[in-house]
Amino acid sequence: MKNTTKRAASLIICASLLASLAACGSGSGTQDDTTAGGGSTGDDTTTSAETEAHSPLYDMERKDYGGREFRISISDKWGSEMWVEEEDGDVCNDAVYNRNLKVEDYYNVKITPVITKIESNTTHVEEVQKMLLAGEDLYDLTALYTCRAGWLALDGLLYNWRDIKGVDFSKEWWIQSANDAFTIGGNQYMAVGDLSITTLLLSYAVFFNQKIAADYNLPNLYETVLDGDWTIDELLDCSKDIYQDLNNNEKVDKDDLLGFAADKVTNLDAWPAAFNIPLVTKDKDGKLSCDLNLDRMQTGLEKVYSLYYDTKAYITSGDGSEIKAFANGNVAFLTTWIDNSFNTLRDMKDDYGILPYPKLDKEQTNYYSNAMDNYSVLSVPKTVKPEDTEFVGTITEALTRENHYSVISQYYDVALGAKYARDEQSVAMLDIIMDGRQYDMSILHANSLERLPYLFRDLIAAKKTDVASKYASIESAVKAGLDDLTETYAELAK
Length: 494
Description:
The protein is of the alpha/beta class. Helices cover 38% and strands 13% of the residues. The protein has helices at residues 6-19, 47-51, 91-107, 123-133, 146-154, 176-181, 198-201, 210-215, 221-226, 232-239, 271-274, 294-309, 321-327, 389-420, 424-435, 455-461, 467-492; strands at residues 35-36, 61-62, 68-75, 109-116, 141-145, 183-184, 187-188, 204-209, 243-244, 257-263, 281-282, 288-289, 314-316, 331-337, 352-355, 376-379. Strands 8, 9, 10, 13, 14 and 15 form a six-stranded mixed β-sheet that branches. A four-stranded mixed β-sheet has the order 4-3-5-16. Strands 1-2 form a two-stranded antiparallel sheet. Helix 3 (91-107) runs antiparallel to helix 14. It starts with 5 loop residues before the first helix and ends with a helix.
């Protein structure tokens, strides 16, 4: 079991942040007067750099970009991870506002959102795709849904991040496993780092009602996790006997007392990751392949099928009523994403806890999960002039560094730890969830790979478990798709 150590350090950071969240730099140097680490340019503008020298932003060379706009394409759904209009007293909102202000001050730039109102998951990428194909220079950076962003790469509309100066993917504020997974043959068109707060908000977890757990004498679930014993069998055992037909209508519904609730859509996508079943892998030469462990997948499917359909679980088609049922105190265990701590569950009367998705068995070493396919990936459009890509790389790196320092800790410790999640142990569980996030290249190009990242979801939703038969029907197409992607990425890099 991995021993988590980030908690204490995060709390120290939070103490200083709460004392002076809004502190930011002022003034700027000149293009000829760049300084490393926020050093003096001959006036009194170094105060913020000196008082917050431990922020990695101030390790970067300071430049004056003359008030230039840095234009970020965002959607109106998740746009607040990149830009907010003003402070409003909410600690997470204000952390984003002050992050941008610090970067604007340090580089004399203006962060400008280009907002797309979305009507569906495809709206944003379709709008950006249309503008880029028309050659419209509207964006310096795009933040798009992961499951749709791959379209732009295959259209040749994006720069290779590995060719852009100013970005250091070796640092801890970039999510290494994601960027490695999204790099094919040395070419990477989507980047993931701490600037994408949605990688936290949309990470999957198991929420449990602490009152119901106590009423039914369930074991200490935090200890179960830390002992390495939190498995799918344990979740099934804990939930299967919890049921009361509270409205006496002789059918399972949201108004009953329920052991388990979930949807049969996105929440199912986390199970292959949770069971340590990679979908796409790369060999030492970077060649892509899909070598599914069908035996492990079969075992996992059967266990989740039993959880969903062999108990009196409340399973929805994704209308959100399962989350509301949990919020109303009717559900013992719920699989959902972390962001629900900030909205639907915010005013929940019962105390709840947060756990990682369970392991397949006790022999599995670590706990794993992933994030919903709507989290943001960052790309640089080809409409940016080549000589301007270093500017884009520098400001993206600066925002990601400062976000790592001042924003993630606010979400992680202040909001989740003290305001929404109801106990310190839940925050410790978040360390495990964040450490165990898995990223798979197939999510970028699902349409080219016969819906491979949704294989588990599609089978369970259809009440089927014969994964060998299903995979045999798509195997040749998946392999051809992976070969095509490898070839296409290589051609794009020429």
